[in-house]
Design goal:
The protein contains nine helices and five strands, in the order H-H-H-E-E-E-E-E-H-H-H-H-H-H. It is mainly alpha-helical and about 250 residues long. The protein is globular, with a radius of gyration of 17 Å.
């Protein structure tokens, strides 16, 4: 389970996102109903890890299965929080598109959550499947993109985009780190049913920090902090990056 992948670009989020003020005065961000329903109940998502490199049928089955788990867990949780649910679309390709979500597609990209389409798109090719695809990268990647969809359903995305000009990168990091924290909360809620151990989780958190650290996602320490916070608590309340000090979203 040793794989390092280059993350999908989030240029669309930067170019489409205006600058805005500190979020502490926006209740939709800081006091959202998403934070009120308690821990995500433990449930079963007995994934069968991908054990064949570059085998699209196996990968397709795996991605579809995990997305089904995400649909089931988040639809139930959001209902408890009083948030209307609509599952995202899932689009699976076997080769890179020339364009996706209105932007040119880079040959090192492999997945994206398209805000305009409310769609998770994954390219099942060698970029994603070549090196030991049995690790947790694909699982947590899907859960992270689903976390972005959950933010949309909860009104967090709209509230973020509506803020007055101030510091776009800090607040964008808050959003992206929250999606990683939500991926941790989901993973923590299903982890006991998976053929995994604590070492697998620690490894993938470390690798995610190496892979996605940049001006948008922040430092490895911030990525690890929020992924672990979600995983250990299983509670979106602890994914409230909007009230966190700037040092925690650096």
């Amino acid at each position: 389970m040793r794989r390092i992948l280059i993350p999908a670009l989030v240029l669309s989020l930067v170019t489409a996102t205006p600058a805005y003020a500190a979020p502490s005065d926006e209740p939709t961000l800081t006091d959202n109903a998403l934070y009120s329903a308690g821990p995500i109940p433990r449930s079963t998502c007995a994934e069968k890890p991908i054990d064949r490199r570059n085998h699209v049928p196996t990968a397709r089955t795996y991605v579809t299965f995990v997305t089904g788990c995400l649909d089931r867990v988040w639809s139930t949780y959001l209902a408890g929080a009083g948030i209307p649910y609509r599952k995202p679309k899932l689009k699976l390709l076997t080769r890179d598109p020339k364009k996706y979500c209105g932007l040119d597609w880079a040959d090192y990209d492999y997945a994206w959550y398209c805000y305009d389409k409310r769609e998770i798109m994954v390219v099942l090719d060698r970029t994603l499947l070549n090196l030991q695809p049995d690790d947790l990268y694909i699982f947590t990647m899907l859960a992270g993109f689903y976390g972005e969809h959950v933010q949309y359903l909860a009104g967090i995305e709209e509230a973020r985009l509506d803020k007055e000009p101030s510091d776009p990168f800090t607040d964008l990091r808050r959003s992206l780190l929250q999606s990683l924290c939500l991926s941790g909360a989901f993973t923590g809620s299903t982890y006991a049913s998976m053929p995994r151990d604590v070492g697998d989780w620690k490894f993938i958190v470390k690798q995610r920090g190496k892979v996605v650290q940049d001006r948008l996602y922040g430092k490895p320490a911030s990525i690890a902090y929020w992924m672990n916070r979600g995983f250990k608590s299983r509670d979106p309340k602890f994914c409230n990056t909007w009230t966190a000090p700037k040092s925690k979203v650096a």
